[in-house]
Design goal:
The complex is a heterotrimer of chains A (179), B (273) and C (377). Chain A has helices spanning 16-29, 76-82, 113-119, 127-139, 144-154, 160-178, and strands at 3-12, 33-40, 46-56, 68-73, 86-95, 107-111. Chain A is an alpha/beta fold. Chain A has a single domain (3-178), classed as Pyruvate-ferredoxin oxidoreductase, PFOR, domain III (Pyruvate-ferredoxin Oxidoreductase, domain 3, 3-Layer(aba) Sandwich). A 6-stranded mixed beta sheet of chain A has the order 2-3-1-4-5-6, with helices on both faces. In chain A, α1 (16-29) packs across α4 and α3 (113-119) packs across α4 (127-139). Chain A starts with a strand and ends with a helix. Chain B is α/β, with parallel strands linked by helices. Chain B has an 8-stranded mixed beta sheet with strand order 2-1-3-4-8-7-10-9, sandwiched between helices. Chain B has a two-stranded antiparallel sheet with strand order 5-6. Chain B is globular, with a radius of gyration of 18 Å. With 377 residues, chain C is α/β, with parallel strands linked by helices. Chain C has 3 domains: 6-188, 3-Layer(aba) Sandwich (Rossmann fold), CATH 3.40.50; 201-262, no CATH class; 268-376, 3-Layer(aba) Sandwich (Rossmann fold). Chain C is 38% helix and 21% strand. Chain C contains 13 helices and 16 strands. In chain C, strands 2, 3, 4, 5, 6, 7, 8 and 14 form an 8-stranded mixed beta sheet that branches. A 5-stranded mixed beta sheet of chain C has the order 11-13-12-15-16, sandwiched between helices. Chain C starts with 5 loop residues before the first strand and ends with a helix. The chains are: A alpha/beta (179), B alpha/beta (273), C alpha/beta (377). Chains in contact: A-C, B-C. At the B-C interface, β2, α3, α5 and α12 of B face β2, α3, α4 and β10 of C.
Chain lengths: 179, 273, 377
């Protein structure tokens, strides 16, 4: 059985809820099961935010992440808050602005997600799509075609090209991070 | 012919009504059916909704689709009926406490939406059914069982409140001025949007007795002598107007009605398909 | 026809189910975590000729729903704890005046403003006793997105069939989570409409029940001019001060549900045949219970699960049968012990009963249930 428990964390307004939805949808496009949940504070922007996705070939009973396989942390705060939940052999994917603790033992991939959205695309609002390209590029938990189809299904009309580009850049920086 | 109106529009087997001798509510209720008759409405298409209190017992005696709801909520129930079935003529009968205390929020929002509901507030300046407690329209310094030393609250002017909140038709009459009440209610029924008619009603049993207003006849005479039309009031000073009741039609400014506006959305979406 | 698998949120599935069941009127007030139900209803209803209105408060939302239903439209409102408290007044009205309608409560942490974005099951006793006076209650509780769709349809069907308010008790997890669903084709659904009178218009006795204790209900505005009140009333619908009439009315309202409880009550059980321990849970906690059961079964522990789908009326007959066969029933719920009171009432002298409770705003985890099972064994 293939099962991924994924936690996407950052600050409110970075679009991680939508990223979780897209990730879950891409798993469904592939014929898998997926459940997406979220937790958030009262703030619409800022604060700490997390979106969780469980992907499995089998029926998913418990909907929340218990043994996190993959943690994305876009901010220092979210890294510090959620890192403890990542299992020992789990994968930690961080934005390059995040400083990891000296004691950090997880396998780490650091990628310039926030910077790429701003500097390469000029649109910080596609940070979430860059992040999706990065984490899927590193983990291959869903196929790229399924991910792209899910992205196109959920993003606003007229932004398809921008989001495709964002996804491609995510894959690009994933390759660099794995070197 | 009053007897014809009673036969035609009342559930005669439910009469006599529960109101006290000398209460103004019966007169006002008759004016409402008179207005319905003059407006030529179909009984099957009229829905009368009320809340809780003396006035809110009126629909039980009236031969229409009638709904006696919870305290203060008549306008909220009526809003559901009107929006769900705009072809119905929806009339709300309510009291001063029902409409402006516990139902105050529903009242101002129904006015604001300009939804096609004709509301008649029977204002007797007291909670009659529970035995004479002061209401939001009990004048300052007057007494109720819960204001034994005189009421220190400032009273609402229901018409000003409705007008400010956005009602497109507003008027006031008294139990003495039965013909004026009929005219105002008829005009209100002809207004597409939200209409408010305040009908000042005497409660000799509680308000009158607590505040030494005399018997029912004295109270009727007081309305006759102290009600002033807007035209007459224009010639009086503020001092001369003190303690008087301003009656007549205060506002008649038709504006787009809520359920019609909603129907436009439905029609537009249907066309876009 | 192959059904399309979709990723759908629980709150969205609720609206999909409602519209499939025939909902054409929604009145409500925004409140987390139920707001998506209002938002999606606002967007979808005008497309099917239905009406949506955001009222000035929760009380008005419930009142307007009753008004909408009286005109013949299937009507719904949705809320969460604080709004559920405010709606109780007019839920009682709908019970005594026998108005079909659906009230959704997406439960969050309480009391008061509590934890607006966190799940809870703290309103299940309020669902039973929230409004004053004796009254009938039907409350359903889904544990998945798909079941939210199904039970919303069922809530409308039961409301229409028995002329009463029906409560759909969701929780924040079920309301907000998204999962894969395949919705049935609308033609496959059983849709029930209220009984309407077929008698002459002047012969209609508005609250005279048929043999099933349910009176046929006329739409307002089609010629059956009748009276509806929240006061105790006789069969004609007019208020009565008679003690006999009052007794008959309240008993009939309650008996209406008692008489049909076998049609209403649903539950799900798994691995109960050889179980020594049963985990009793409902709503989102059932998903933790199922995970816990599988983990324990893998270790050879004989555990089963029992999940009421209808929480009111409570599936007491079946639970009692099971209680006689097991050593312990563990009731896991996100409150400090509410449904466990009902389990204790029914099974107290028959088996041991233990609890897993949580009010932190976090869901109960499978590990917590596993630990409790291992502790009692």
């Amino acid at each position: 059985m293939e099962k991924y428990e994924v936690r996407l964390s950052g600050s409110g307004g970075q679009g991680l809820l939508l990223a979780g939805i897209i990730l879950a949808e891409s798993a469904i496009i592939e014929g898998k099961n997926a459940v997406q949940t979220q937790s958030y504070g009262p703030e619409a922007r800022g604060g700490a935010s997390k979106s969780e996705v469980v992907i499995s070939d089998e029926e998913i009973d418990f909907p929340k992440v218990r043994n996190c396989d993959i943690l994305l942390a876009l901010t220092q705060k979210s890294y510090e808050q959620y890192n403890h939940g990542l299992k020992d052999e789990g994968i930690l994917i961080i934005d390059s602005s995040v400083k990891v603790a000296d004691t950090e033992k997880h396998k780490i991939y650091s990628a310039p997600i926030l910077e790429s959205a701003v500097n390469k695309l000029g649109k910080p609002m596609v940070t979430n799509i860059v992040a999706l390209g990065t984490i899927v590029g590193i983990t291959n938990m869903v196929a790229r075609e399924a991910l792209e189809a899910a992205v196109l299904k959920r993003v606003p009309k007229g932004t398809e090209d921008l989001n495709k580009k964002a996804l491609a850049i995510g894959y690009e920086i994933a390759q660099e991070a794995m070197v | 012919m009053p007897s014809n109106l009673v036969e035609k529009y009342f559930r005669t087997e439910k009469l006599p009504q529960i109101w006290c001798p000398g209460c103004g509510h019966g007169v006002i209720t008759r004016s409402i059916v008179d207005a319905i008759d003059q407006a030529g409405l179909d009984k099957d298409k009229v829905c009368i909704v009320s809340g809780i209190g003396c006035s809110s017992r009126a629909p039980g005696y009236m031969d229409f689709n009638t709904l006696h709801t919870t305290h203060g909520r008549a306008l909220a129930f009526a809003t559901g009926i009107k929006l769900a079935k705009p072809e119905l003529k929806v009339i709300v009968i309510t009291g001063d406490g029902d409409a402006t205390a516990i139902g105050g929020n529903h009242f101002i929002h129904a006015c604001r939406r300009n939804i096609g509901i004709t509301t008649i507030v029977y204002n007797n300046n007291i909670y009659g059914m529970t035995g004479g407690q002061y209401s939001p329209t009990t004048p300052k310094h007057e007494k109720g069982t819960t204001a034994p030393f005189g009421n220190i609250d400032k009273a609402f002017d229901i018409c000003d409140l409705a007008s400010a909140a956005g009602a497109s038709y507003v008027g006031r009459s008294t139990a003495y001025h039965a013909n004026l009440t009929t005219t105002l209610v008829k005009n209100a029924l002809n207004n597409e949007g939200f209409s408010l008619v305040e009908a000042v009603s005497g409660c000799p049993t509680y308000y009158g007795r607590k505040n030494k207003k005399g018997n029912a006849v004295d109270m009727m005479n007081w309305y006759k002598d102290n009600a002033v039309t807007a035209a007459a009031a224009a010639k009086l000073s503020e001092e001369q107007m003190a303690g008087k009741i301003l009656i007549g039609e205060f506002k008649n400014k038709p504006e787009p009605e809520y359920t019609s506006e909603y129907q436009k959305i439905i029609d537009k979406l249907a066309k876009g398909r | 026809m192959k059904k399309e698998a979709r990723l759908m949120q629980g709150n969205e599935a609720c609206v999909e189910g409602a519209i499939a069941a025939g909902m054409r009127f929604y009145a409500g007030y925004p409140i987390t975590p139920s707001t998506e139900i209002a938002e999606i209803s606002a967007e979808k209803l005008p497309y099917v000729g239905g009406k949506f209105i955001q009222m000035e408060d929760e009380i008005a939302g419930m009142a307007a729903v009753i008004g909408g239903s009286l005109t013949g439209l299937k009507s719904m409102t949705a809320t969460s704890g604080p709004g559920f408290s405010l709606k109780q007044e007019n839920i009682g009205y709908a019970a005594i005046a026998e108005i079909p309608c659906v009230i959704v409560d997406v439960q969050r942490g309480g009391p008061s403003t509590g934890q607006p974005t966190c799940p809870s099951q703290g309103d299940v006793m309020q669902a039973k006793w929230g409004t004053h006076g004796d009254h009938p209650v039907i409350a359903l509780t889904p544990s998945s997105v798909k079941e939210t769709f199904d039970l919303t349809v069922r809530a409308f069907n039961l409301a229409e069939k028995y002329r009463m308010p029906v409560l759909l008790m969701m929780d924040e997890v079920i309301g907000h989570m998204r999962e894969k669903v395949e919705l049935p084709d609308p033609s496959e659904l059983e849709i029930i409409d209220r009984k309407r009178p077929d008698c002459d218009k002047d012969k209609y006795i508005a609250f005279k029940p048929d043999e099933d204790l349910v009176p046929p209900m006329a739409d307002f505005g089609i010629g059956y001019r009748y009276h509806v009140t929240g006061l105790v009333h006789d069969e004609t619908g007019f208020p009565s001060n008679s003690t006999k009439v009052a007794d008959q009315l309240i008993r009939r309202l309650v008996d209406k549900i008692e008489m049909h409880k076998h049609d209403i009550i649903q539950w799900e059980e798994e691995n109960t045949e050889d179980a020594e321990v049963i985990i009793f849970s409902y709503g989102c906690v059932s998903r933790a219970a199922r995970t816990a059961m599988k983990a324990l079964r893998d270790k050879g522990v004989k555990v089963g699960t029992f999940r009421p789908i209808t929480i009111w009326p409570f599936p007491e007959e079946r639970l009692l049968e099971l209680a006689k066969k097991v050593k312990t029933i563990i009731v896991a719920e996100m409150n400090l012990g509410q449904m466990v009171l009902e389990v204790e009432r029914i099974c107290n002298n028959v088996t041991k009963i233990d609890r897993v409770n949580k009010v932190s705003g976090d869901i109960i985890y499978p590990e917590e249930i596993v630990a409790k099972v291992e502790e009692v064994l």
